[in-house]
Design the sequence.
């Protein structure tokens, strides 16, 4: 884990109150794996660092991206950083996703901002020659992180617009909205009955109700499903035990043992 005073390259509002922040941080970009996060110092008025998923990492350029919503003082401060400013980050932290070497077909489901770490996983897996289906579920059309339509006519998340992903046939993107204002009507999980059978492995990132619903879905019984937990963290370094959860294998700290867990290992009824 490295502590780095990273220079801001760009900071744009991707959708209302959601920012895409690119930072220069060669050491962390080189070490980052999909599913890991960084702890971000959000200014002197905010005591605790904020954990943010690594959304992209470009080792060649020495850059990494964070996609975050403005939800409080810390993220509001972060949203106001401009090109050339410095941001103190610590990472990469956590275990990240584990792709089975034999898995060919990967299904990725991002609920809301859960798309952030999955875009990184999608690109990495596609570069490794796997076929990826990435589903983005949001409440309403304006929250979809999309700014282009792929040649196949499917939505491409803003996060996937690298040359590799844009022109790749190995990442297929779909989307759904709860209010039905665009694409398929329904929750992020709406894609699961149709696609779970196709997938060798499933990776999900989203809110707790999404995971609790997934844990009960018959289509996922016996499937390899990894979930990235988004819970409140204190130190982010295994010191405060503020992120402890109960699993079938005992108590685990999300910041150290996670944030990615096998879905079947978590005692979902014990989690709020
Ligand atoms: Fe402190 Fe995980 S956040 S132990």
Sequence:
């Amino acid at each position: 884990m490295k502590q780095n005073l990273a220079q801001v390259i760009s900071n744009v509002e991707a959708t209302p109150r959601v920012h895409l922040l690119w930072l220069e941080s060669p050491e962390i970009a080189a070490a980052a794996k999909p599913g890991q996060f960084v702890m971000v110092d959000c200014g002197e008025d905010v005591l605790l660092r904020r954990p943010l998923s690594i959304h992209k990492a470009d080792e060649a350029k020495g850059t990494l991206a964070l996609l975050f919503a403005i939800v409080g003082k810390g993220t509001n401060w972060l949203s106001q950083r401009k090109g050339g400013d410095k941001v103190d980050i610590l990472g990469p932290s956590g275990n990240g996703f584990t792709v089975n070497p034999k898995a060919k077909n990967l299904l990725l489901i991002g609920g809301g901002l859960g798309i952030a770490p999955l875009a990184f996983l999608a690109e990495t897996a596609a570069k490794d020659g796997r076929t990826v289906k990435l589903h983005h579920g949001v409440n309403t059309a304006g929250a979809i992180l999309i700014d282009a339509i792929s040649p196949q006519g499917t939505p491409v998340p803003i996060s996937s617009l690298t040359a590799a992903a844009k022109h790749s046939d190995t990442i297929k993107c779909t989307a759904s909205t709860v209010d039905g204002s665009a694409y398929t009507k329904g929750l992020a999980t709406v894609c699961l009955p149709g696609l779970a059978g196709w997938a060798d492995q499933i990776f999900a990132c989203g809110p707790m109700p999404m995971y609790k619903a997934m844990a009960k879905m018959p289509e996922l019984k016996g499937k390899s499903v990894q979930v990235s937990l988004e819970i409140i963290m204190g130190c982010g370094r295994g010191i405060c035990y503020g992120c402890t959860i109960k699993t079938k294998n005992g108590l685990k700290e999300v910041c150290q043992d996670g944030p990615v867990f096998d879905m079947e290992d978590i005692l979902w009824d014990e989690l709020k």
